[in-house]
């Protein structure tokens, strides 16, 4: 019997941003992924990955996370009646995200080192019988996340000129590219200068797992990877709230922080706002 594991993810708003459009001289739209069940875009892919894990007979889900994947994995595991083991680098994940994990019964394993160390440990756990790793290296995660591009195409009647989005591990860039297919907008993934210590905890990933795929998407779309600093991230987060009424976590404002370096006057731009501000209010 086929089972679909869902918490009502997807179908998030694509909001026009009139004041920021005027400020930057573009036609700006905001893909508000904070409206997903656990407050971030991760839920799209997690629903698909967990559904497949149930079909395959898994009893335990495993992931490494800076926080959003952790919250999503734990929630969807609880929904499916599975165990969730979340591996995080000690001190690297935002407290509210770990609280989400604990609230739905997920188990947190802390390791010394960076996200790469946490990921290596998660891969080891995920190789055990009955375990399924649900990081973005799981192809079902990418298949679920690409649905956001479908929604943009449907809402706008075609692709925008430009897509900006945060660049942590790079899985979401890969997913949007798959969703747009042969109608790629110009991609501008936005990373922070100091990946190891940035205030934007969701993209605090020193070695992006999908770096090669990101480079390919950027090349094929005629875009570029844009690098900003923490001051620009925080300023963009504050600007988004005061000008358009959206409270996002710092990493989610990366696309706004890079608008003046990614879009030309008059272009239609979609900025992916990946997570709610309550995920990382500090």
Helix content: 40-55%
Average pLDDT for all residues: 95
* Strand content range: 15-25%
**CATH-defined fold name of the largest domain:** Rossmann fold
Gross CATH architecture of the largest domain: 3-Layer(aba) Sandwich
Identify the CATH class of the largest domain: Alpha Beta
Strand adjacency order, main sheet: 1-2-10-7-8-9
Number of domains: 2
Number of distinct beta strands? 10
Radius of gyration: 18 Å
Shape: globular
Look at the helices and sheets and give the structural class: alpha/beta
- What kind of oligomer do you see? single chain
- Topology as H/E string? EHEHEHEHEHEHHEHEHEHHHE
Cα distance, first to last residue? 44 Å
The largest sheet is:
6 strands, mixed
pLDDT < 50 runs, ≥5 residues: none
Would you mind describing this structure in some detail?
With 282 residues, this protein is an alpha/beta fold. It has 2 domains: 14-41 and 142-279, Rossmann fold, CATH 3.40.50; 42-140, Rossmann fold (3-Layer(aba) Sandwich). It is 41% helix and 18% strand. The chain is built from 12 helices and 10 strands. The protein has helices spanning 18-24, 42-55, 68-80, 95-103, 115-126, 139-145, 147-156, 171-180, 211-221, 230-244, 254-257, 259-262; strands at 14-16, 27-32, 60-64, 83-89, 107-111, 131-133, 162-166, 186-192, 226-228, 268-273. The chain has a 6-stranded mixed β-sheet with strand order 1-2-10-7-8-9, with helices on both faces. It has a 4-stranded parallel β-sheet with strand order 5-4-3-6, with helices on both faces. α8 (171-180) links the parallel β7 and β8. α2 crosses α6, α6 (139-145) packs across α8 and α7 packs across α8 (171-180). The longest helix has 15 residues, at 230-244. The protein is globular and about 55 Å long. The mean pLDDT is 95.
